[in-house]
C-alpha cells in the first residue's frame, strides 16, 4: 500500500494522503514513541503491538513459526525481483507488509487506523499537533462554513464524542458557533473520535489572534486585506480577553436570515413566523458581553481582582471567573472577620466550581 514508487512512503504519510483523510495531521513519530502519550490505548485496540509496529513502519518481531512463513515469502519476492532489474529496492518496503497472511494483515491494518486515530485525537491537542492543525486551518484545509451569513468562515474538524464508533467527523464554525456535516460524503467514513471534543475549543483558546472573519477563499487566493490596524494587534478592542471581532462574527443584527413574503417581513407572531431568532442574536453593543469587567465595575471595582490585568495582557479570562471570584472574596472577607485570613482559604472555592 505504501510503496508504489521506489522511495518507500511512511505508513503515516500514506494514511494521511488517502481520500477522505485530508483533515488529519501527520502525527510525529516522537509523539507515538513516547509511551506516556499512548496510556490506556492498549486495551482499546485489537492487536495493539502489531498495529503500533505498522504505524511506525517497524519490522515485526516474529516468533519461529512466522519466521518460516516470512522466509517463504522472501524467496518469492526475491524471485520476482530477479526478473526485473532494480525491482529489489522497490520490493523491500513491500516485503514487510507481505510478511503476514492476508486476513491477519487486514485486521492489523484496521487496528492501525483505529490506533492512529486515537493517537491523533491526543496529538492535535499537544503543542506540536495543534501547531500543525493551525497551519492547515490557515490554508483552509478544513473547508468553510456552509451558512450564508458566515461568509465562508473557515471551520475546524471536531468530534461530538471521544469514543470511536459513535459519530463521524463534523465541522465546527467559530463564526456561528455551530457544527455541520462535512460537504463531501467521503468524510462520512471518518470517525469523529479521531478529532475529539477538546480540539475545537482548545484551538480557539490557543490561537486567539486568528481573524475568524477571514474567509476560506481569501486565505487560498492570498487576497488578504489588512486585518490589523496600524497600531498593531494590541490596538484591537478586546472583550473578555479575546478580540471583539472574533466573538461570533457570523451572528447578530444583519447576520440573521429574515423570511419575507412578497417583500414583507414575516412577523414573529405569524403562524409560521420565524421563532427563536434570538438564538443567533448578539448585543448591538458588543461591550455588553464583557461580563467579567461589568461585574467588577458593578461591585465597585476591586484592586485585588486579577481579571482586569489579564484582559490587558490579552490572555483569555474565564467567563465564570467573576462570580466565583466575588464569592471567594466574600468567603475571604468572612474568614478575615473571623480572624483566619489565610489566602489558602481560596481553595475552598473548588467546591463551588464543581457545583456549577
Ligand atoms: Zn458558520
Automatic annotation (TrEMBL):
Domain of life, source organism: Eukaryota
GO biological process: regulation of transcription by RNA polymerase III
PROSITE patterns found in the cross-reference section: CK2_BETA
Coiled-coil residue spans: none
Keywords: Phosphoprotein
Region (Disordered): 59-97, 294-356
Biased composition (Acidic residues): 59-78, 299-309
Name used for this protein in its record: Casein kinase II subunit beta
Species this protein is from: Lasiosphaeria miniovina
Amino acid at each position: 500500500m505504501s510503496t508504489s514508487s521506489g522511495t518507500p512512503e511512511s505508513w503515516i504519510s500514506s494514511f494521511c494522503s488517502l481520500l477522505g483523510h485530508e483533515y488529519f495531521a501527520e502525527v510525529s513519530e516522537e509523539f507515538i514513541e513516547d509511551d506516556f502519550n499512548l496510556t490506556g490505548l492498549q486495551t482499546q485496540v485489537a492487536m495493539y503491538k502489531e498495529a503500533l509496529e505498522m504505524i511506525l513502519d517497524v519490522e515485526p518481531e516474529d516468533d519461529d513459526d512466522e519466521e518460516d512463513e516470512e522466509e517463504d515469502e522472501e524467496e518469492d519476492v526475491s524471485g520476482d525481483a530477479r526478473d526485473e532489474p532494480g525491482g529489489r529496492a522497490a520490493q523491500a518496503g513491500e516485503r514487510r507488509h507481505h510478511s503476514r497472511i492476508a486476513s491477519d494483515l487486514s485486521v492489523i491494518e484496521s487496528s492501525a487506523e483505529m490506533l492512529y486515530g486515537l493517537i491523533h485525537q491526543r496529538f492535535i491537542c499537544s503543542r506540536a499537533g495543534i501547531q500543525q492543525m493551525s497551519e492547515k486551518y490557515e490554508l483552509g484545509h478544513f473547508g468553510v462554513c456552509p451558512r450564508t451569513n458566515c461568509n465562508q468562515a473557515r471551520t475546524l474538524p471536531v468530534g461530538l464524542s471521544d469514543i470511536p464508533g459513535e459519530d463521524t467527523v463534523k465541522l465546527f464554525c467559530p463564526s456561528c458557533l455551530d457544527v455541520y456535516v462535512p460537504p463531501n460524503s467521503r468524510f462520512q467514513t471518518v470517525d469523529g473520535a479521531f478529532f475529539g471534543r477538546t480540539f475545537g475549543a482548545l484551538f480557539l483558546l490557543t490561537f486567539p489572534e486568528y481573524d475568524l472573519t477571514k474567509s476560506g477563499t481569501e486565505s487560498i487566493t492570498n487576497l488578504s486585506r489588512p486585518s490589523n490596524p496600524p497600531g498593531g494587534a494590541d490596538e484591537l478592542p478586546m472583550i473578555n480577553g479575546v478580540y471583539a471581532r472574533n466573538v461570533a462574527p457570523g451572528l447578530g443584527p444583519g447576520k440573521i436570515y429574515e423570511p419575507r413574503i412578497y417583500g414583507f417581513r414575516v412577523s414573529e407572531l405569524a403562524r409560521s413566523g420565524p421563532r427563536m431568532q434570538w438564538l443567533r442574536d448578539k448585543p448591538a453593543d458588543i461591550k455588553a458581553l464583557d461580563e467579567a469587567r461589568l461585574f467588577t465595575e458593578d461591585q465597585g471595582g476591586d484592586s485585588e481582582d486579577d481579571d482586569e490585568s489579564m484582559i490587558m495582557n490579552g490572555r483569555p479570562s474565564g467567563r465564570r471567573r467573576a462570580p466565583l471570584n466575588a464569592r471567594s472574596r466574600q468567603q475571604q472577607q468572612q474568614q478575615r472577620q473571623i480572624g483566619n485570613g489565610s489566602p489558602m482559604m481560596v481553595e475552598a472555592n473548588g467546591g463551588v466550581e464543581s457545583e456549577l
